[in-house]
Structures are given as C-alpha cells and as structure tokens.
Amino acid sequence: MASNVNPTVRRRRLGMELRKLREDKGMTAEQVAERLLVSQSKISRLENGRRSISQRDVRDLCDVYEVEDRRLIDSLMQMAKDSRQQGWWHAFGDIPYSVYIGLETDAASLRTYEPLVIPGLLQTTEYAQSLVRGAWPETAPADVDKRVQVRMHRQKRLSETENNNPELGPLRLWAVIDEAALRRRVGDAQLMIRQLEYLIEQSEQPHVTVQVMPFGLGAHPGVNGQYAILEFPDASDSTVVYIEGVTSDLYLEKANDVQKYSVMYEHLRAQALNVDQTRDFISGIINEYADKRA
What we know:
Residues 18-72 form the HTH cro/C1-type domain. This protein has 294 residues and is an alpha/beta fold.
C-alpha cells in the first residue's frame, strides 16, 4: 500500500511552483517547449499536475529558468520524487477517477451537489453495488466489487478513528442533494430504507451537513448538473471545482471559475431545506418506501 505522501497533491504543488518560475522568468509555455524540444501540451500538463513529473523534467526546467538556489532545486526534485509514488487507491488497480480520489484524500473540506444519486461518501455498500451495476451494466462483477471497495475506503475520510489522513482530521462535508436522488429507487425498497436511514445517521456527525433540494422549490442554481468544490488546508493549494464526466472529468482551478461555482453553491445552500427540515423530509420518504414494501 501507499505511504502518507499523496502523489496527486504533490504533482499539483510542484506544477504550481514550476508555473510560477516560468512566469517570473517572463516566458510562455510555448517558448519553454521550444527550448526543451517538447510539445507545449506537455508543459501545460506538467504545470496543471495532470502528468507525472520526473526529476529530469525538473532539472531541465530549472536550467531553462536559470534557477540558482540549490535548496529550491533540491526541494522541487524531492517533490518530483514524491509525486511518482503510489497512493492507497493504486492497490485497487486502474481507477478511472484516481485524480479526484487523490484530491479528496488530502482535502480539508468538500462541498458537493448531487442531482441524481446519493453522494458516494454517504452511500451504503448495498446501494453502491446496485448503483454501479446499473450505471455500468457491462462492467465485470470483479470490477464492480473493486469500485465499491474503493468507495467504501474513501469513506474513511469521514471517520475520526479510521481516517486515511489522521493529521487532517475528518473531511468537512457539505452535501446538497436533489429530491430525485432520494426517490430514484436503487435496488429494492428495503435497500432504499437502509440507505436513507444511513444518510440521516451520517448527517448527525458534526462535520457532515446534508440538505435536500425538494422538487417544489422549482428551478435553482444546481439544474446544470453535479459538481463538487474541494478546499485544502495548505494555502498554496488552490481550490478545485470537480465535474464528473463519462469518459473524462473536468477540473477547474482558475479563481474566476471557482468563484462562480462557489457563489452558485451559496445560493443552493440558501434555497435548500435546512438540516432539521431535511431530516424530517428524508424520514417522510422512508415512510413512503415502507408503505410500498408493506
């Protein structure tokens, strides 16, 4: 399994440092690419943390930027070495959203809006199994199990005692969930009852806030779809907006983009039912499932 080093976060931090060195030098990514005889897209991927960075890459870039501070070079080289280590999720093989998992593992807080399903960090094992099988009908049973195991492992970030990152403390989670996610029956009625009871139980933790957006509230800032906002304890790590896709995911880090999504989320929280109203609302839906089962 992995060490305590998070390679995803190391790549992001290193990329930001390299971008700052380039900008301080007054060079464009295209100019750097021409000097190193590589593609401009490689330089961009190195700077946005989407590509592993070798120590040779760091050495070459420091030469181009004429960095003379040996301590800075050694620090960047060490970050490059750390960025090539494997996170805990690599033990499960090829995971499509491994970049997101790396970010979530080191995040201090997560704000998420889910229009169709219960958020992954708040799912029961049964719900997750049924959801993955339904969403990916051609997935082999072994791969379904792997995805569910990863999802359950991720939930350790919400635990005080089984945290992947004990130095961080539990993840501060704020989830706004559309009523559709509560009424979309994944599995049978009994499974949904257990899932919604678990949702209420998790919402009672001091670091977990759950709000429901009922159908009756009409149009709202979340109608454009699911997204999540991750914030980190280190001020040097920029906030990330994550938008999940079928074949590829989108990560937004520009201040203007993050600001727009943050403002949208504030409107979501303001319009949704408050915490107590949400628990009562979920309890009402549990009773409806119980009546259907009877």
